[in-house]
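re: ur question from yesterday

yeah so i grabbed the chain u mentioned. its 176 aa long if i counted rite. heres the sequnce exactly as i have it in my notes:
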Amino acid sequence: MNRFSLLCALLLVITGCEEKVKPTVVPVETAELPSQESWKSTVVFSDSGQRSAILWAGHIAAYAQQRFTLLGDSVHVDFFNEDGVHTSLLTARRGKVNDLTHDLEVYENVVVFSDSGTTLKTERLFWNNTTRKIHTDAFVDIQSPRERIMGHGMESDQGLKQYRIMRVTGQAVTNE
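ran it thru and got these structure tokens back, copy pasting raw so excuse formatting
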């Protein structure tokens, strides 16, 4: 019986040993990883203590070495004029902030609602932090209480009070 017990123990040891599979490790460059990340966060842009914009994003990933920040999972930006008065609200699906200039570019389902009742729809839009102006070379659809204009390319103040369409393709209704 001693031999039988020894044989059983030996079989258990042999069958119990197996080679462990080590997971493969893929090296990732640190430049490809964000230096900071946050979810459902708010960022305030200001100049000399005066707020110019308040940004909210579902996901924010900052890349310090490249000096830009990616925005995702919905982007909302409230814009303010030089007196601190709210002028418009911008929404988009995703975007990117230049960390040096604080300029903003947004993409996908971009809509700007001005407090004066004008709405801008496009797929790509840029906001210049210094001039507080927006522009795009993409197709735009602008609807105000007085007109609806479509075209390719535009520039405007962030409150959509004075805008210029580059190649107009829509219509306008005037009181004349």
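noticed a couple things. The mean pLDDT is 85. also Residues 32-172 form a domain with the lipopolysaccharide transport protein A fold fold (CATH 2.60.450.10).
anyway ttyl
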